[in-house]
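Reviewer 2 asked us to include a model.

Predict the structure of this chain.
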Amino acid sequence: MNKPTVILLLGLVVMATLGVSCQQGTVFSQYDSIASPGWERNDTISFRTDTMPAAGTYRPEVGMRINGTYPYMDLSIIVEQTRLPSGQTRKDTLNCHVIDKTGRPLGQGVNLYQYLFPLPVIQLEQGDVLHVTIRHCMNREILPGISDVGLKLSAK
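Predicted model (structure tokens):
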């Protein structure tokens, strides 16, 4: 191999290693965008993980990206997790604090605020798939200010 090829390959290996180390433990991470004018109450967001590479304890988290038009201090969501192929289902209602009493967002960001809300850990077997649905249960039919809803699953 010539010198430029070796340097290119070495650079690719370093970048791949850095990418893996930044996502260490994350086995699934995905977001779905919410269409304007907002998240409708009957709009259920669904995620389906790939087959689990190994048996173990996993930590699921619901991700939210919220902008300045969100009208409330809290957000209530219903999260349903179904473990396949067993069909075992767990349903949780999360009450998420997103704005403090002074009106300041509690998430990370400037104009779009990122939040991660933990769910109880889950035991998965090698070959399992996790199907997760998320919907809001706020009084308002259309909830403005939610731009993305996501799921992150990490090995514990």
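The radius of gyration is 19 Å. Residues 4-23 have pLDDT under 50 and may be disordered. We have added this to the supplementary material.
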